[in-house]
Amino acid sequence: MKKEPIKVREESAEIRVGNFEEVVKGYSEEEALLEASRCLQCKNPVCISGCPVGIDIKKFIYQITQKDYQSAYFTIREKNNFPSICGRVCPAEYQCRKACILTKKGSPFASEQAINIHFLERFVGDYGKNNKLDVPVEKEERFSKFKVAVVGSGPAGLCCAGELARKGVKVDIFESLHKTGGVLRYGIPPFRLPWNVLDFEINYLKKLGVNFISNFLVGKAKSIKELFKEGYANIFLGLGAGVPSFLGIKGENLCNIYSVNEFLTRVNLMSAYKFPEFRTPVNIGKHVLIVGGGNTAMDAARVALRLQKLKGLALNTTVIYRRTEIEMPARRLEIEHAREEGIKFEFLVQPKEFIGDEQGFVKKLICLKSKLGEPDSSGRRRPVIIEGSEFELDCDLCVIAVGLKANQILINATPELKTDKYSDVIVDSESMESSIKGVFAGGDIVGGEGTVIEAMGMAKKASRAIIGNFLKKESE
Amino acid sequence: MKIVNKEIINDVGGVRITQLDIASGDIASKALAGQFVVLMVDDKGERIPLTLVNTDKNKGIVSLIFQEAGFTTRSLGKLNPGDTLYSLVGPLGHPTEIKKYGKIILVGGGVGIAEILPVARALKEAGNEITTILGSRNKELLILEAELKNASDEIYIMTDDGSYGRKGFTTDMLKELLSKDKYDLIYAVGPIPMMKRVALVSKEFNTKTLVSLNALMVDATGMCGCCRVSIFGQVKFSCVDGPDFDAHGVDWEELEKRNKVYGVQERHICNLSPAS
To answer: pTM of this prediction?
Structure first.
């Protein structure tokens, strides 16, 4: 008997565009049980190969069917430190769900029939959170004499710190912003990842003894060398990819043209949507354009729509993307949510030039139409501009969301740290050790923009290598 | 992040300029002339950049001087010794390039005078001959005259109303000096119109000119691009590529407009009075 996938409960589009509350409500126990019962428990569970950290998906889903949620939680936690976060932000349709046997062969992303692994993971993660299931700590006295500095408190840094602290290593996390969480805080809007979920994970690390040092910019306030001198045995760099790319077209510095990072940081980290109670302003327009097709573009579009609603403006936010919907790197769920909320899409469109008014504010975007040509190095078909296809779009606010590059401050301050042509840190792929002995790196600073779970995978590797270092020092 | 000392430097005609000395050993031990910090007054506050005016490495204290102009600087001015800032991060930006240039003119206007002080001291120590031009609306509003006198070989004061020094703009004096003698560098900080005029004048005489730009910022670590400026047609981030730039390459009109992007909100929030 074929069972239909269990749809996850969501806030209605009309209501949710008026606030920043979480959109996806998650499964109830009953729904989770029904969804878990759809799992075929394959002899050869191919879904696991789709998970960047190799969670035993088959096992945790089975444990759900047995209502043994505690065991399911620990099964996930063996590989994934942040199930509540990944269950919310993982692009499962490109990972485990795409690998699921129920996905049609050759499909570019998971079929609807594929098991909703991410929602089950979230259910289990939230169960663990709500029932305060702490993963058993394996603190060993012999590690307590080692101190590690983790630079950056995003997904990679948090994961590495947690892994080390669990073993009894003393960890200090340095964060340049006033709040911890990195991109999970300044980048991902609370309607996708509520702050209490993030705070739970950070508080757990604090309970483990991890020391958070905010407002501290390593590379300026202290160098890598100085950290070593202060007694840190090893250093982990989870610097992230936070440098925004721009289009490099005429008029791009006009007022009300934001990088996606600025727009999201103002609204998420600084709570600009609550101005003037919160003092950081953000502008909004009547004709908002978002350029790009990734998750940050979807986040920016949905934030812009909410700002329009809060301001009492007509909802008018359009995403323009130079390829077509199928090539969009965003999670399918985000595209779907954006569309439900009323965001418009213009595909095969390339920005050419911004036109401003006398006060220096943007008022129009001149665009070109394109068509898809041969596949490029990313395997996606390259957009080719159609000559003479120029047209204008009204635009009084634009957000550029066309990619993010490696953060540079610490890299520039540390010439011994070898980087590749993208300025990403070069590491040994097994140990994650950089060109400086005892300095490890992971997350987006290695290999560019990736996912939370990939960052976690790298951080785990690094933490194992760091523990290996300490064991070696022990036996010397 | 604890305020250890506060001094109202000036409070006349609705213009209040305040100095805060703040304990921060980490920043004090690293900061060099020309660098800045970003601070937040409280957990709902805005992140604003302020130039480091003085650093005492031994005591671990940094000093900021600011005009209480907007909501955040007014809130900051309400703090007292013993109070703690919610956030303070730095030192940020590249330090001013300090070396022996030869003969240098420093131009400071308004509260920008505070920002040229650390640069004046460092350049003087590097063996340069320093001529300083200070500009203010009137005698009462002039700040740090004695400190800059100490750091300069020659000093000229210009006031808009002629109530002190000479009547006129800093650029009037600049032009006079440049027509009489050759200088190796000009360093100017002040309101945008002043820096713009300095750039115009010094361009005529083909004298290398640096300015410290006061673009709006959020994170100030290169992540948002709010502070982007055009320098010789290239986009630069003031926070990580600056704040010092070649004045002859700055697109002043763009900077002026970008700095007014939140004019509406500023007017709105300035009608609210900061909690005392």
So the answer is: 0.95
